[in-house]
Amino acid sequence: MKYYLFATHSNPNLLNELVKKSNKLVRGKCKISHYKDGEILVHIDEKIKGQKVFVLGSTFPPAENVLELIILINTLRANGAKKIVALIPYFGYGKQDRIKYSGDAMSAKLMAKIIEDAGASEILALDLHSQRVAEYFKVKITELQAKTILAKALKKLQLKNLVVLAPDLGADERSKKFAKELGVKNLAAIKKHRPRVDEALVINLKGEIKNKNIIIVDDMSQTGGTLTKVADFLKAKGAKDIYVALTHLVATGPVVENLKREKNIKKIFTTNSIVSASDFKGDKKFEIISVAELFVNHL
Q: Is 192 a catalytic residue?
């Protein structure tokens, strides 16, 4: 049986890959445009009443991506879709998952509720920034993990004397799982402090990294600040080659240019949850791994 896959404008290349790789999906025709005043206009050009449908959309900036996703989901529900499964390669607004300081927002909880209220029946999301995000959803949510495909790409390098490093305490569990996937026993971790939002300061290092090849593992980077500071710190401590395994490269900020300039990072492996391979054509420092098969295998 074939199911319609509708999509926002957030992941056009991934959309094409999903339809090509899956024998279950056909691209659903819909129009997402704007009224003259800038408001988003969505129109479904398929008969979907009583059917199960899929929707592809990420919520990275600009906020237009969020609006397109929730309006598209709600339009499908209003037109009679029986079940709406949202495929979310990157769940933005996941960083504000709790009230850490008085006056903080809880954007992650709000975003989960908005997507549910719009009409999503089930969620497939890739590497959530926080486990609290999944807890905020009342509908079924499945978190896909990119560690397998990223580790597979790194194994091709046949690196020796490897250490898998967590760039902060929040990435510690993620780095351990990645090391297990990679078959690496040597672990290290950085303890850091953020004096201001989006600014990281390295405090100390746990583990031995001198004369070792390092793989820094994290779920996302939006400025590259943590990665560049950690790479500089590791080099000063005697590390050899430094690689990065990153699920989400939030290229709406300065991260790409910052990482391109960072001479202490040899290569960066990331997914097409936000960026696409065509964005880095001819740039050997970045290798973009497709997540299409991950999603197709869980449909």
A: yes
